Structure formats: structure tokens, C-alpha cells
Amino acid sequence: MTTSAHPETIQVGNGVESDFRDIRTTQKEVSTEKDCQHERNTNRGDSLERECESPREAGTLKGLSLASEDSFPTALSMRLAMVRGPDRLPDEGLQEALRGKLRVLEADNGEVTALFSELSARLLSINSEEDSIVITFKTFEEIWKFNTYYTMGFLGQCMENLLLDQEFWLNSLDQDEAAIEVSVPEETLNLMYKGILMQEGSFFGSCTANQMFDSSTSGSDLYLEQGDIAVFEPPFMGSGWTVQSLVDGARGTKPKPALEPVDPFHQWFLKSCPENILVGSGKLAYDFPFQFASGSCVTTMEYDACGPDELSFECGDIIETVGLLLSCFEWFLGKHERTGNVGLVKTCLVKPTDSLCESADTFLDEEDRLLFGLNDECTKAETIALLNKTSQSDIGTVYKLDLIERQDSPKGTNGNQNGPYSVNASNHEELRSKIDQILSELKEAPSSPADTMEPCQDDGEASEPAGGDGVPCFTVHSEGEGPSHDGFVTLLSFLNCADYKPEFHCLYDHSLQFRHLLFSGHADDEELVSYLGVARETARKKRQFWAQSRICFLLGKMCARKSKYSQARVYFEETLSVAREQFTDTFLLIAVYTNLAVIYLMQKNTEKYFAVSERIAALLMGIPNYICSTEKEPEVYSKLEQSPSAAPFIERLQVLTEEFQEPCGVIPSHCYLALGKVYSAKYLPHLAVSSARRAALHPSATLTDCLTGVGLVLENAHRLFGVGKQGVAMPAQVAPYLSRVQSLAAAYDEDHALRHAASLCLSQLFQKHGMLGRAIERIHSLVSSGLGRSLAEANQTLIYLAWLHICNGQQQQALDVLDSLLASTPENCTTPQEGVVYNLRAIALRHSGDIKQASHSYQEAIDICEEFDSRHNWAIALANFGILCLQAGAKGLAETSLVQSVEFFSELEDEGHEVNFITVLLELGQFYIHEGQLEKGKIYYEWALLIAIKSNHSECQLKATRRLCDLYRTVCPDEAQCIIYNEHQLTLVRKTGDKSQEGEILETISRLYLSLGTERAHRSALEYTKRSLGIFIDLRRKEKEAYAWLQAGKIYHILRQNELVDLYVQVAQDSGLSTGDTHFILELLEVAGDVFFNGTQEREKAVSFYRDRALPIASALDISVKLGDRLNERVAFHRLATLYHFLGQYELAEHYFLKALSLCPSPLQFDEETLYYVRVYQTLGDIIFYDLKDPYDAAGYYHLALAAAMDLGNKRSQLKLCTRLATIYHNFLVDRELSLFFYQKARAFATELNVRRINLSPDQNFRSTSMYRSNAQ
């Protein structure tokens, strides 16, 4: 029975159509991969490899024994570790920063949930203390996808995109590369996979041994060999395992079969296929020793061809394989040795000869080129255009506002603090000479358009000239003036050829180019169809069968284009039936069968589809460079919108490529980029960006790969950073790509446009994040390599360089650049750009302290604005002049200039001026506040806020709101107004994701509500305090946390909820003590005393804080530190440790006891010092053993105490310590040898000291330290 008899349409996965033929292909692939996996796992070490360098082995979810039916885990814990450098060593500083980010996400895990949803997992919890994230899965498909992403190294990179700050990516360019390493317990993942498969019911498994099953369908038992794949069903209600053979559908049972599930990819693939395709009754099995064979074979019986595409032969004839013979296919393409004919041969009718061998050549290079190929020039042009658009700036046309300290040094940093870049005198002169030379050359060069590259057109839209080389062109005559039958002689003679000719290329192509290349004179397709119909009839009458066959093929394609599928099928079938001799044009045969297969699928004629698909597969294995589709396939798939369905297969291909690490036709970087495009189309931004990064960092990556990666990152930027993070045009994640693009472009000597775009984008990224020195360095490198052939582009770049120098405090370098620009301008022709230069020059002069020259430059800039009526620039120049006047002390002139600037801004109607307008309003408002005109100042602040709200500028809203908060808090106090604006500020800060600022604003609002003095306000204050407390706990800001606990206790005291006051004050005290900062502890204790002292009840409690706690500690520590007396300092720490011990703060007690020990002299000078060691270490052992329940660490302290006791010769202490060590090793650490050793030592001391009994029972000794704490003290 052949596969053509199966009646069902094949639908694989997410709509991927498959011509699946026989399960043996999958069986062998699974078996082969399983053997390779076993070999790899045998040689595999225990060290965790970095994901982005060496992907995890594929198939990690295999090797499971399903003989046992134990309980399975339902959660998977992923551990995150920050590593740095080529050796991937842990970095504690970065690890702590990562831990802090995880703490924040513990309280607000929306972003993490969204990420793991993209990774096909479900978030359960985040444990920042263990640096872990716990996830789970509901279906085996989720485990399969997650494991695939883990195998390809995406998990760590996705976590980096989520958890690392933007500055990290910029800092990593000049440092050892840091990364997040994700560790997944594979055994747990294996068990979860097994458990979910059993929960879902039946699954596909592979037998791990030859075994017999009791038959449940016939009298004979079912026998399966090792490696056979079958459908297994777990036991139900006490029954045994049920198995169904895929060969004939026979069923059997067994209590505990030896099996393992197939890997998740094959599990998904097999489950996607209908049962009647996988399970067949008497499927043909071709007993062939090779999977991919090439060479010669011999026929086993006589066969008469049933059609012109098949070979006729006699028994014993030699058939040479054309291409490859696949043992799982019904047909292969062969060449008859005696006759030389080529045609299809049934695999079951041949057997191998000595010359037949396994072939490793699967000649998929052409298909790989079509799937993964990149157009270098097109990609480069598109990326340059995208980078230019992203980095587009108005630096050369719009004046800059002179408020550098507040606007262009974010986070209060400058170039000297972030990536310093200084130029010595000789280098500076050389750079200045280079600038003068460039400007001089560009000024003298003839004017020409900017040297830019426009994105190229898509290949599918490129037009081709009619009548290509060697292709004749036939005129189509309309009906009524059509030629006689003799008029088709030329056309029929051209088409009536048995063999393939290059001129037939356009006939078989999917794009229907023949309509314009081969024919002309027709108005539409209907005229062409009529013409071809007459030509077909003429060919039939003249018995020119090959011409008739090709014309029928063309008519079939025209009908299919009009969706007339039944009529098209008739024409295609006639194409095959009309031939009277051997089909030698294999390309025509492939084209006909391909089109027929599509029509059969659309008409749900699965029987014929299977028959045709078998033949297509054989032909494609023989003729890989088929031309019926050529370069149009990607376009067709794109238009069908089925590219996302290819993701599982591209992922599998990539996993296998990386797994076997052998040279093959697939370039890994191209495969990653293809995946990135698919993920981007499926709106999976984290995976898309991770794919791009894997491609760009892969050793095989080319310049085109990096450019494509840049495009993918920018395309998904708004999806990754647009929600809740103030959408950014260019994320810092693109910096590594741009840096590598620069390196590769320099190595390949690429044109200037690409290097200019990459350098400018990198410089802007550095400027945005306050790394001004590094931003300047990029532009200096660009200037050194030349500024291109466009004067406008060079001028704009140099203006930007001057502005960077001004922001970086390098005024003289900025003035040199600006003076060079002024010197290169035409003498008798003023341009608006001159005004930009004069404005920047004035700013540089003001910061240099040259007020007079700065005012002259501002006047020049204002005059140019007036000449060109540029109101926007005029307003900025007036504002800058007003700021200059303020510096000079001319307040009246400053006010006039600023007010006039505001008037100009208010008259502007175009967009893009709002940020500058808001800034000037705030400056004018601040001027009036300082002058005591509070009402005017408030009006300008509120005006600025309204403009910011209207223009939807969050940063400007934040600035204006902060000014109003400061106004109502300090200048003219108004708690109600201050609360309103602080709450608005809180809303804005939340959008930025800055948790630290959010906590501080909540703390401020709480204090404001508390100052109102009403019960309702007190309860609101308590609510805001608790919210700030949660944030400070997440951020591990212990001092803020302690004060928040204390503030909550204070409010409860005011609200007379006394039962909670002591609790909150105690927790605040504990938090303060955990900081180890004595001065802070003292301050906190005093504030805690103030809570009761300033209240109306329980004032006596304040005495405890003032006298009994704060004062003794302060006095002892203050005196010991001032005198430098280590003994007194040690006593103070010992007392503090004893106090914590008394309070039950055992960790702090341990900390201060160790501090006290660290102050002991070394070597020890007196026996009393050794005795102190014995007692303190014994006390530490008691705390750890009795109170913290940690026998292991307690044993360490007891060992140290015993060593000191032995040095001292104190036998009673040695007896006590040996007894406790014997107890620990006997009852807890279960070390019989050590237990016996210490017991014998204790017995010897007991005999010597006349102690009758030694009790090692843990029940008697395992009691709290509080029972004897008073004695210890």
C-alpha cells in the first residue's frame, strides 16, 4: 500500500503543510540524534557554559525512563548569575545590582510575567535572596519552546534586556563583557516534561529495548524492537501501559515497558499529524541499508512505465541514482545505464550494489540561499537610512538654549566622570588643521547633492526588459485579426522541444514573467488566454505534443492566477498525459507536479496530493536547482503570511547546526537573523532582539548581519521600551552592534555614509546617558577619517562636536571648532547656520567668563534671526541673552529679554518648540521667585506645567511639578497645594520606573499629610508611609526602611493604636542596628525616644531609649574611638554584642562578637586573652547551635574554642567542648569517626576531672540559649 491511499489533508503545527510520507524517516532521525546526544552527555562536564558562546545541548528532555510512575515536579527554579570576562567569573558587585533589580520586580512583576509569557512559560515567583525565578508549564509545547530558547542561548539575553540598565550596554563596550548566566536544572525539566506528557495522555515514545507486549487486538503478541517509535498511553485506574504500533496500528499492553519519550520537537511534529497518516495498515517498508544513498543499484523485477516520467526496465538492469535516493521515499530519480533515459524508479524495485554508499551531501545550498540570503547593498542602504532617520537632529538649524548644567548632563555627570576624553595640545592642533582642511576642500568642491544612499527596491518589484537574451517575443493578435494556423509556426517550433532550454526559464517561474517577456501586443490576460487556446488546438492538430504540453502548462498557470482551480487542474493533467515519449525536461515536470500538488491541497484531494508529492520529493532530491520558483519563493511566502509557521523548523535547523558543530551549508548568523525576522513578525520583541544579538556576536557574522541586527533592534525598540519606560527612539542595546559595524566597516573599507551614521548614533547614545567624553571621542574619530563629500553634513557634524565640547566644559576646543566654521562661510552671503554658530560661540564665551564677547555674539545671532524672520531661534537667542544679563547682574535687562522671549514663544504655532518654551518659562518663574515676586513666579511655573501637559512632555511636566512642589514646601508653605503637586509628581515618576524617587516622594507626601493634624490625614499618612516602606525594603535601603518603620509607629502612637506602636518601633530598631552604623543607630534611638517623649501617653518609655540604650553605647564607642584604645573599643563591641544577644538579635550578636575578637592583639600576650577567645567562641557556638539551629557552623566555632582551650591547658573547658562536638557529630552531622574521637577525648577529661557521666543525648542539650543567657552575661 502506498501513501497515496491516505485520505486526509496533512496539517502540521501552526498551519505548515507537509508532504509527510513515512514515519521511518523521523524514527531514524530521532534514533541518530539520541545516539549523538548520549555520546555528548557522556563526555560532558559539570561546568555551566555560557549561553551566548556555547548553546546548550539539544534534546536535553530525552533519556527518561517511564518505568516508574513517581510524582513529578510542577515548578522549575532558574538561577541567575552575573559573570564577567572570557572566563565567565562571578562578579559580586554586579550580582548585588541584579539582586536589587529582582527585589523591585518581586513587588511589581508585570514585565517579568510578560517576558516569560513570550518564552512560553508561566511565572510563579521571584526570589531575590536566592537570585532565582520560579516558573511552570501547562503543556508539553510550552516546555518544548522554552527548552528550545534555552538551548539557543536566548534566556540569558532576554533577562539582560529586561534587568540591566541602559548604561550597562554603553559601559560594556570598553570593559570585559558582562552577562547574565541562566542555570536551569535539566533533570527537573526532564521530569516536568515526562509528567506533563503523562497528564496529557498518549504520547510518542521510543523503545529502549526489544520487548513483547500482550496483544489487545489479535491473538498474537505485539513485538517492538529497540528504537521503534510507538504511541504509548500511561496506566489508568490500575491498568498497565497501552502501546499502539505505527506500522499496522496493532495495540498491546505491558505493566512497565522500557521506553523514553521522543524529544519535544518530534513529539510536536508527530502529534500535529493526523493518526491515519502516522498509523497505517501494512505500510510499505523499503528495506534499504542507507538513509541518503548515491551510486548505482540493480533492479529486482521487470517494470513497464505507467507514464512518460517513469523508467521501464528489466530484471537485473543497472540504475544510477540521480541526486539522492532516500530510503523512506516511494520513488527516486534514476538513469538507466543501458539506454541513458532518466525517470522515476520505485525504491522497492531495486537493491543496492557495491557502488551504492551513504551520501552526506544533501545539496541544500540553493534552498538555504533562498531562505536565509541577504542582499548586502540593499541591507546597507536601508540601515543607513534608518540610522539617519533615528539620529536626525536639528542641531544645525535650531539654536541651543544655554542651560547646560540642567539639560545636557543627565544624572549630574560629565565627560570627565563618564569616559574621559582629553586632547593634548599637539593632537588638538592636528585636529583643528584637519577640520580646516576638510572645510576648505568641501567649500572649493562643486556643489552636488549629499552623498546618501536610498533604500533599494525589493527584488520582487524590479522590472525586467521585455525579451531577455535569447528569448523570442511573440505578438498576440486580438480576436478577429488572429493569424491562421500557419501563423503559430514560430511559437510552436520554439515550444516543441523535448529537452529543457534556458529560454524556458520564464515559462516555469512563479512570477508569470512569460506574459511580458514572451508575448506582446495583448491588452489583458484574457486576450493572452484566447491566443494560447488557439495555439493549443493548432499544436494538437499538428501532433506537436511538447508544444501542446507546454501551452497547456501556461494555460493552467493563467487559470490558477484567476482562481479557476478546476480548469487549471485539467490543463496541468493534460500537460502530463499528452507526452508520447520519455519526459526529458525535468524542470517542466517539477513545475507541473508542484502546481498540481497545490491545487490538490486546495481542493482537499489528498489521495492525489500524496501521489504527486511523492514524485515531487523524488524529483527535488534529484534536481535540487529547480527553477519553477527561483527567487520568488520568499515573496510568495511573505504574501501568504506564513513565515511565522516556519519558526519551529528554523529553530530546529539552528539547534542541529550548533549541536553537531560540523561545516554545513547553513550559516548560523543567517539562521538567527531569519528567526529574528519571524519573531518580530509574531510580536515577540525579546526573542527578536536576542536572535539579532546572537547573529551579530557569532563568529560567522558579517557586516550585513550586524546591519540587519541593528534594524531588528530598532524595529522592536518601541515594543521593548515603549510601555512604562518613556518610549525611546534608540535603545542603548544597539550600541554593541554599532560598535561592531564600525570595526567591520573599517576592515572592509566601506564608504563614509555607513561609518558616519554609526558614529553619529553612538555619539548621541553616549551624550544622552551623560558620557560626554566618549561621545566626543566618537566624533573626533569620525573627523579624523573624513567628513564625506557634503558640506552641509560636515557643518552639522562640526556644530554637534562644538556643542559636545561646551557641555563637557571644554570651551576653548568648542571655540576653535566654531571659529573654523565661521572662517569657512562665504563673506558676502549670510546663512541661517551662521546664527547657530554665533549662538553656540556666545554660550562658550559666557562659560569662559568673557561676558563682553558673548554679548557681541548673541547680538550677531539675533540680527541673523531678524534678517530671516526666524521667531523660534530669535526667542532662544533672547532667552540666552537674558541668562547672560543675570550673570552680569543686569536684572532689569535680563527680565526684559526673558519676557520678550516668552512673548515670541507664545506666538509660535508650529510644533517642536515646546521644550525650549517650558524651560524659559521656568527660568523666568525662578527669576521672579528670587526677586520676591511670588505670585508672578507661581504663574510662570503653572504656565510651564500646562504647556508640558498639553504637549505631552513627561520630563518637562516633572521639572515644572518639582518647581511647584519646592515653591509650596519652602518658599510659600501650603501643605494642601504641596500634596496635590507631589501626588502628580508621583504619577509621573512611576512612568519612569525610578523606584528610589517614588519611595522618597511617598515619604514626602506622608510627612505632608501628617502635618495637617487631622485623623483622616494621619490615616492617609500611614498609607503612604507603608507604601514607601515596601519600596525601601525592596531596594534594601536600610536607613530609609528603619525611618519608615519608625514613622509608621509614630503615626500609630498618634492614632492611639498602642498595641502596634512597640512592634513597629522594635522593627525599626532592628533595621537600624542591622546597618552597623553606630551614629545612625544613635540617631534612630533618639528619634524612637522622641516618638514617646513628644506624645501624650506612655512618655516613660522614652527613658529606656535615651538612658538605657543610646547613652551607654554612644559614650563607650565615642571614648574608645577618640582615644584609639583598642581594648575599650573591644569592650564596647562586646557589650553591644551582649545587648543584641539579650534582645534575641543573634545575627547581630554574632557580628559584634566577631568585631570584638578582631580587635584582640596577635599574637596573644596573656592567658586572659586566650581565655577570652575560649569563652567568646564557645558563646558563638552556643548561639549558632541552640538558637540558630545550625550544627555545622556551630561545630566550627567549637573547634576554634577547643583550640584556644588546648593552648591554654584548660581541661574543664576542653571537656565541655569535646562533649558538645561529640553530640553534634553523633546526632546531627552523623560522622561516627569524629563522634567517637571527641567522645573518647571527653571521657579522658571526665576521668581526670572525676566527672561520672557524659550525656550525648540531643534532647537534654537542645534548648534555647535564653535559659542560661543571664549566666553568660
From TrEMBL:
Q: Does the keyword Transmembrane apply?
A: no
A Pfam family per the record: TPR_8
Domain SH3 spans what residues?
Answer: 292-355
TPR repeat ranges are 1130-1163
According to the record, the residues making up region (Disordered) are 1-57, 407-427, 444-476
- PANTHER family to which the protein is assigned, alphabetical: SH3 DOMAIN AND TETRATRICOPEPTIDE REPEAT-CONTAINING PROTEIN 1, SH3 DOMAIN AND TETRATRICOPEPTIDE REPEATS CONTAINING PROTEIN
Name this polypeptide is given: SH3 domain-containing protein
Q: What's the source species for this entry?
A: Albula goreensis
